[in-house]
Amino acid sequence: MTEQQKRRGWLAGFSTITILLIGVVFGIIFWGGFNWSMELTNTEKFCISCHEMKENVYEEYRNTVHYSNRTGVRATCPDCHVPKEWVHKVVRKVKASRELYHKFLGTIDTPEKFEAKRLELAQNVWREMKANDSRECRNCHDFASMDYTKQQKRAMDHHVKGFDDGQTCIDCHKGIAHSLPDMSTVDPSSVVGK
Amino acid sequence: MKALSLSLLYLLQVLISPVMAEGLPSSLRGASALDTPSAPPIVKRWQDDQAPIMRSYVQQPPLIPHTVEDYQVNLKSNKCLTCHSWANYRQSGATKISQTHFADRNENALDNVAARRYFCSQCHVPQTNAQPLVENTFNPVPSLR
Prior knowledge:
The complex is a heterodimer of chains A (194) and B (145). Chain A has 194 residues and is an all-alpha fold. Helix content of chain A is 56%, strand content 0%. Chain A has a domain at 17-139: Orthogonal Bundle (Multiheme cytochrome fold). Chain A contains eleven helices and no strands. Chain B has 145 residues and is an all-alpha fold. Chain B has a domain at 44-131: Flavocytochrome C3, Chain A (Flavocytochrome C3, Chain A, domain 2). The radius of gyration of chain B is 26 Å and the shape is elongated. Classes of the chains: A mainly alpha (194), B mainly alpha (145). Chains A and B meet through helix 10 of A and loops of B.
């Protein structure tokens, strides 16, 4: 029995090379298409196509150093809120289905509702960043490349101490890109007595 | 005839206006004419972090010896107090707020910073490289020198 005769079914008429080529073409179309459409959701334009994001967190962020600064280097929404590595990115995207669900429910569709949920939403992000050692911050702010001697005295002292104590970026740098929630339950000493 | 005298008047005005401008006090936008842009103001720079600044008189609210750009101070949070509160000053190594901040205006003692002392920059101000607008011969009292 020859090699050709062993083949069965609809593939029987194709040579090995042809099958491989078809596989490559389909691979490019489907895999590339999957990644391309996922990257479409990783743009600021996509994020602020929802008014919940545009009218609350995006407006606040426009006043901060990550939007406007002396060098013109900008961090957009996905730079901080979507992981760069593929596996982490897909995990985050699957988790985001919960956000879609609440978008349809209208959980935060007015500024008042958003404000009422702000502490919970902020704490979700803080918890995640604490757990992954502020991974998204470190895509740009890498400890190994940080020259403390070029920082101001306060920053230098606290960075050296913080790293020695095993702290991570979000432990201190909360509310650097968005308005802070009511902090009276997080740090009562930093909010006026009620 | 009227048109001629008006245009002569206008010509006279154009000719003498630069002379008149010299005698006028300069406004905030400077002595430049209305149709030309005035010189842009010099951008003030916040001073770098420094050691606590000596007070000039005993009752002076201490000056802020570091930049406070983008610090959020509102009813929901106070960035200053995350270092300067009594709960946080040891860890941050900052100066703690004075005990005077824990009393209302009737001298009732409070267990947290009083509302009238809450907005730090009403009394405490950061410093820029701005030069004094007028000469100042003020000197601290001998007890502070």
